[in-house]
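Data availability excerpt. The first of two example chains:
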Amino acid sequence: MPIHEFKCDSCNYEFELLIMSKEELGSVRCPKCQSPECNKLMSATNYAMGDMTGSKSSSDMSGRNIKQHSCDTGSCTSFNLPGYSQ
């Protein structure tokens, strides 16, 4: 699904929107303050590792710097990569 993350330049609110076409990107407004000054953020992708039975292989996520938590806009993922600052 084309879910995009944005950050409002006016109030610093971060939010997600389902954007179906490039034309919709021009009409994005902050849901908190209604400002049109919003920038698209780089998003982490979600994918599953392992086989389809739910068991994890030896190359599973243990030891990696990935954490998932809930936020007011849904499920959020944060990760720590060398050279990446949040």
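And the second chain:
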Amino acid sequence: MTDREAVADAVDEFVSLLDGDDRVAFGEVGGVYRDASEVVVTEEGVRSASEFTTTGVWCRAFADGAAAYRFTTDLSEEALADVADRVVAGSEGLAQSTPARVDAESTHRAVHEGWAAESVTERDLDEKRAIVRAAAADTETTPERLRLYYSDERSEVSLATTAGSVVRSVVNRADADVTLVPPDESKVRRHVGTARGARLLDELPEAVDALDRDALELAKAPDGDPPTGDAVVVLGPEAAGQLVHELAGYLAADIAAFGFSPLEPGDRLTDAPLTVDDVVEPGSWGSLPYDAEGRPTTPVRLVDRGRVESFLYDTAMAAEAGQSPAGHVVPAIGFEQAPRIHHRHLRVRPGEATVDELLADADLYVRRFGPAYYRDRFERTQRDGAMPPSTPYAHDVADRIPDSAEPGRVALPVAEGFRVEDGTLGAAVEPTLSWTPGTMATIDGIGRALREVTGVTSKHKSRIPYAVTAPAMRLEAPLRGRE
């Protein structure tokens, strides 16, 4: 029996186990067959290169109105029976006060072969290693430190449920994380990712060249004191994309159920014509054809000309809100952790402002932010902690939020920023921008040109891919010194 056949048999066996368990109201079982490779290059050359195949089965089962999640690479009948029993016991053990309602009548069977014209498996490891090494070596900057981490995988993902749903998809995903530290300068870091398979290998040299140019520009800029206090800030397309990524986090139904979001559908976010869609860009790093519930992924308008139009839901939260789920239960990279409600690929509609118009009277230009920091300790603890995959559990957590909690306050450290003097970029500076969803009300300019930013975010210990295509924006926000 081949590994692929073993995965398919394990999925069938697991579904049968759940289907025959009277405690299970609904269950989802996914089988994964992955061909993967990794290459790590530093300033000293190739540090490691490897390729491997992994197989596994994951399950999310509902019992007593709650869900638990398990993943196993042991496909034996004994192991599957043990995992099935554990996942059901985990659901029952949550003692969730708000039971999830599952639409078990909505079933479908479908196949999606992915967006890659050339699979990552069609390039051998030696070729990948040579391309990654050449891309890392071809920099004009003489780095004090350089790290290029490349990884890819071709995953055949099958999903079956106790309601009879069967979907199958192929994901050819590749990404690279590049860090370059010029002498006596702050590091410059970029992530690039795609679901178009081997195409990233051909695009990797250009991505490293772009990072190199940005590093040189920062190195050539004079040092200066960052502006502080209330300031007019222009966000370049990548920084604007990072900000919209944070905004969309507060439009997820589970985050709202925690009590962390100050927003509701229908709220006026800004008078600016800000329009944000969560789309399924073919081949995008953040796109997928079906989510972890077997739902086909469909576009959703989150913000329409400044007004919040929709939240992101799973089936349980959608039923509670009287809405339709649109495929937002995104699997974690690798499937070892539970899927989470999350956006796939955010697209912001461009505006009419030119670069000169945005920079006029501005105090700061931000090209990139560093990792966000949630100032409220309770919100930070819950976001960083592992949560069960049954989202209504968030209501139980909300009941324990202390009166002193002030969620929705985010510190965004500027990783690549410049003072603006008379409409021109000047000294390189790194203040921290204090942001809340209410800050979006100050937007008074949206640029014309779009650029894409990709990344991996952590939500309740699950590593989730995301992508944003956005234009530059101008807004007002308080600035502090580097924290």
